[in-house]
Amino acid sequence: MKKPKKILKDRINKLYSKLQIEAESYGYHLNSDEEFTKELIKGLIINEDRYGYQACPCRLASGNKSQDLDIICPCDYRDPDLNEYDACYCALYVTKNILDGNKELTSIPERRTEDLNNNKINKKEFSEKKLTLSKPIWRCKVCGYLCARDNPPEICPICKVKKERFEKFLT
17, 107, 117, 153: which has the highest count of C-beta atoms within 10 A? Predict the structure, then answer.
């Protein structure tokens, strides 16, 4: 019979391998500090056991999945953080610049929109505000995937074509 610590270690290693394969196949990179990365993955597993979903280990989850959808890993903020800071908020995902040592990790400001009472702004309030695009929208000409960023992704996360297959859709 396996001991609980051994079981957790096995789960961490299994999820680490899975995330590593997924990240690389979708054009992303996990942080190369394996010990640090496995601690984050341990947090994902703990949150999955606690809440039933893998909430970001660096944010406080409410335990209500519908309220936490934006912080289920990979969170909604991963790509904007990678585009602007070369790492996501918790530094689980990093860009090639950081992976290759061309850039150092820095602290990343929280992007999660909250009101003064620490409750997420509801979607109706958000949709009633006039929005302007701060980034161009890129469209994959093969599968139609859309993303808002300064430049198209290196690889389409849906169909895996390279960035040359993207067109500027809206500016």
Answer: 153
pLDDT (tens digit per residue) in 50-94 = 999 999 998 888 899 988 988 999 998 999 999 999 999 999 999
CA dist., res. 146 & res. 139, Å (int): 5
**Predicted TM-score (pTM) of this structure:** 0.67
Please report the domains of the chain, with CATH numbers, ordered by start residue: 1-102 (3.90.460.10), 129-171 (2.20.28.10)
Cα dihedral across residues 129, 80, 54, 105: positive or negative: negative
* Helical H segments across 26-138, by residue range: 34-51, 65-68, 78-85, 96-99, 123-128
Q: Which amino acid is at 11?
A: R
Q: How far apart are CA 96 and CA 83, in angstroms?
A: 11
* CA distance between the termini of the chain: 59
Q: Cβ contacts of residue 131 below 8 Å, gap of 6+?
A: none
Q: Is 58 exposed, middle or buried (0-12, 13-18, 19+ CB in 10 A)?
A: middle
